[in-house]
């Protein structure tokens, strides 16, 4: 069991975590016809918008209530009402997801009460589903905001099951915040291969997958529909990925009676087997030959790649669930986790990280620890590139954000296929650091051996 260390620094110089409101906004982007609305200052939303646009390289319909100095003192209910009316009139969304920021939460406003009164007196908003998630910046990080937003969506939109209506062959999938569009596509393909119908919440594979619509659409142009969310209570089972998705999964189970299973990760042979075994149990069907072949390919990749993992000293910095999943993957391949840094301490899974200790801190903590432990590979998002340059240690970019490389949205690390790809990516990074030996190096090594032998002979004669 890893020891959890809380740093006592008074200043963060190289932040690791992204804010909870941003995590909520990302979740809202997985709903069809959606507009995420950050209830806070315009500058806060601008930073989140720029970061998300750079990461996804897509048009992001992120909006703000633009709280100013007066609204900060007097209250922001009027700003919220005006923003909802303007968005409904101009963008005609089917869904508006509101996420609060620290600016309005610190004042202690009754935002849920304000929203209820707004909806009661504004008939213009009756055709728009509006959901509120309380996500102040000072409480949690990306995983927490994503979880709270999904919980709020389930609480507001999922309808109680009707006893007279038979169950669909439906399986609810609640992906974690670090699942890419390619990860979700693999999950959907796998569920469908068992004859089941997946409903993914949120589904960024339909809204942030790099497609170009024929006409300009001001809202999200893909994702899970409001109608599909309402029917989640008529599924056979719910599968949540990551400990941060336990709260929404358990709320869905309590509200509808649909049983749920929380899988820590989908990266690695063991986690992939667990997911396939669960689908086999739910459907009553054996695993299709396509999945068996993917599993065989993964086993071959593990045999080919373990030479480049064994004994490799790895430093990882990420959100708790991503950190735990990655650390388990590297450890299963024979690597040593010499540095583990988490963005928050809000998850019980940190104790399961296969490392001596887990530091709750920032990227500076990762850099200092990696230097002291002679790490040979850094694993974090693209803000770790400066540490990589200073230490002269290669960087595996993973998580959020990754804006200095193309194709991250289509990078799969889930399941047999994704784990195989990740093994090859890491092995190729290690191979790229190796160099071919020249004749001069062999001659130099030979001279050192001869000098050692001569020194040994001289010592024996004396």
UniProtKB/TrEMBL annotation:
Pathway(s): Cofactor biosynthesis; Fe-Mo cofactor biosynthesis
Keywords recorded for this protein, A-Z: Nitrogen fixation
Superkingdom of the source species: Bacteria
Gene3D superfamilies: 6.10.250.1090, Nitrogenase molybdenum iron protein domain (3.40.50.1980)
Example of a GO biological process term: protein-containing complex assembly
InterPro entries per record: ChlB/BchB/BchZ, Nase/OxRdtase_comp1, Nase_comp1_CS, Nase_Mo-Fe_CF
Methyltransferase found in the keyword field: no
Any one GO molecular function term: nitrogenase activity
NCBIfam families the record matches: nifN (TIGR01285)
Assigned protein family: Belongs to the NifD/NifK/NifE/NifN family.
Name the UniProt record assigns to this protein: Nitrogenase iron-molybdenum cofactor biosynthesis protein NifN
């Amino acid at each position: 069991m890893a020891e959890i260390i809380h740093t006592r620094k008074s200043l963060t110089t190289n932040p690791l975590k992204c804010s909870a409101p941003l995590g909520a906004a990302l979740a809202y982007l997985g709903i069809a016809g959606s507009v995420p609305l950050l209830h806070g200052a315009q500058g806060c939303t601008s930073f989140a918008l720029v970061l998300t646009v750079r990461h996804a390289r897509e048009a992001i319909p992120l909006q703000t209530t633009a709280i100013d100095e007066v609204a900060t003192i007097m209250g922001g209910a009027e700003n919220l009402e005006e923003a909802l009316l303007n968005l409904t009139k101009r963008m005609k969304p089917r869904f508006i997801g509101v996420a609060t920021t620290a600016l309005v939460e610190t004042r202690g406003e009754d935002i849920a009460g304000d929203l209820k009164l707004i909806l009661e007196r504004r008939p213009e908003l009756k055709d728009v589903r509006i959901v509120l998630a309380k996500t102040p910046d000072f409480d949690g990080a990306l995983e927490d905001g994503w979880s709270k937003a999904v919980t709020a969506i389930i609480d507001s939109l999922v309808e109680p099951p009707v006893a007279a209506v038979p169950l669909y062959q439906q399986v609810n999938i609640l992906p974690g915040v670090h699942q890419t569009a390619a990860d979700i596509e693999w999950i959907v393909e796998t569920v469908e291969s068992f004859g089941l119908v997946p409903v993914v919440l949120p589904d960024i594979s339909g809204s942030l997958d790099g497609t170009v619509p024929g006409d300009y659409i001001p809202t999200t142009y893909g994702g899970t529909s409001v109608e599909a969310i309402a029917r989640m209570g008529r599924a056979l089972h719910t599968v949540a990925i990551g400990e941060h998705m336990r709260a929404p999964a358990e709320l869905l189970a309590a509200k509808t009676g649909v049983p749920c299973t929380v899988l820590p990760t989908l990266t690695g042979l063991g986690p992939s087997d667990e997911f396939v075994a669960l689908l086999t149990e739910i459907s009553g069907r054996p695993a299709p030959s396509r999945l068996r072949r993917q599993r065989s390919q993964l086993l071959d990749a593990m045999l080919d790649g373990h030479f480049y993992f064994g004994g490799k000293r790895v430093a990882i910095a990420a959100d708790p669930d991503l950190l735990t999943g990655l650390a388990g993957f590297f450890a299963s391949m024979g690597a040593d986790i010499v540095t583990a840094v988490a963005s928050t301490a809000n998850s019980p899974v940190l104790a399961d990280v296969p490392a001596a200790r887990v530091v709750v801190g920032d990227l500076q903590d990762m850099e200092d620890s990696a230097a002291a432990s002679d790490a040979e590979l850094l694993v974090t998002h693209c803000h770790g590139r400066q540490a990589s340059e200073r230490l002269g240690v290669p960087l595996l970019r993973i998580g959020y954000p990754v804006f200095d490389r193309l194709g991250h949205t289509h990078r799969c690390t889930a399941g047999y296929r994704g784990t195989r790809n990740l093994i090859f990516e890491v092995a190729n990074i290690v191979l790229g650091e190796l160099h071919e030996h020249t004749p001069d190096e062999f001659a130099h090594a030979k001279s050192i051996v001869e000098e050692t032998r001569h020194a040994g002979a001289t010592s024996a004669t004396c």
